[in-house]
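Please produce the structure of this protein holding zinc ion.
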Amino acid sequence: MFVYVGTLLHATASNALEVLLGKALGVNNGKIIFIEDEKELPALQQQYDIGHDQVHRLGEREFLIPGFVDTHVHASQYANAGTGLDLPLLEWLPRYTFPLEATFSDVTFATAAYRKAVTRLLKNGTTSACYFATIHTEGSLRLCDVIEEVGQRAFVGKVCMDQNAPDYYIESSAQSLADTETFVQNVLSRKNALVQPVVTPRFAVSTTFNLMTRLAEVADKHNILVQSHLSETRGECKLIGDMYPDAEHYTDVYKRAGLLSGKTVMAHCNYLSDGEVAIIKTTNTGVAHCPNSNISVQSGLCDVRRLLDNGIKVGLGTDVSGGYNPSMLDAIRYAVQTSNILSVNKDDSYTKLDYREAFRLATLGGSQVLGIEDRVGNFVIGKEFDALRVNPCVSNSPFDIFDKDTTEDTFQKFIYLGDDRNVTEVFVAGKRVLPK
Ligand SMILES: Nc1nc2[nH]cnc2c(=O)[nH]1
Ligand SMILES: [Zn+2]
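Below is the modeled complex.
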């Protein structure tokens, strides 16, 4: 049991940035048990038998925010982050990405590389992540081991690809299906509520229709998430049109395979027609908006406002290494800048995404996309305490605070200018996972 006293900022359904000043937030058994005005603290201490050493007072400029939720990130590709960004997707995959992922057949290398990736995300405040690993079952399981060791909350997918891939990085359909079942059963058998398996057909270009339908059955049987990529680039959309001349559109391919449901996360969704948007909505599929990746590998600009206006669940993803930055602060900034760019060619009725809304996507929105909004995403009694302690005034802070700055200014500066140096503590399910 412990209590934090001070400023809390978070998003709710009705308020993209709620600022709560002078609060006492109590955590017991990993869950938030009270959020009261600070003046109630003596009574709360008595009621719950809380000693002085269990009460932590935040400094004047410090605050707590919910941990970030990265809804789409390739843990294996972290080794390439910040390199190989000169080619569009369909050339980038065989030139840079498949060769790297193939090296994850070496389990020792894979484990070390995954440890770097997961640690880097956690340091940057990502308390929940939805990962792609590689096609290798052993290596994908080592990713789960590392996540458990580090203490993050995560969904992990063994990647499935049985066509349009190089000889050195491809599986047979039967092997892919059997390995997925093995992987899923292994992860579920750990009975660690923080680490869950996710069925992961790479995308309809590299996964046969038959395998996709069988994978949909695996996801159904175990009642687990599905993740893939949808409508990321024009070239990919054209290719899908050629591969599936009878399909109505790209989204229809996944729908017919049975892959779309409230437990599905589709990354990108940059070129959806109105008909596709309607299917994404009616199937309750969630979208992982990956704005850094969209720009870095020249894929396109996702109109998130359109998705939100249509009632679609949207979270943010770093999509490392199509996106070069593993920090969700960067994803928030790119989401805002993408919306600003789109607004240039829209009329005055277009409502841009502001930093508050992008922050909501990075926290509560992501939790909705991953189906964990009853557990994390914001500060609500009964939810688990996944949180970041932020200190804008650390001695090596990358930005400066002035007397004139309000709490909201300070938060906004952290969003635009802050980095992991400002994230001084990270909590997952009430456990402090950083610093160790
Ligand atoms: N950004 C991105 N898009 C993909 N589409 C299929 N595979 C990938 C991948 O690894 N990264
Ligand atoms: Zn991706």
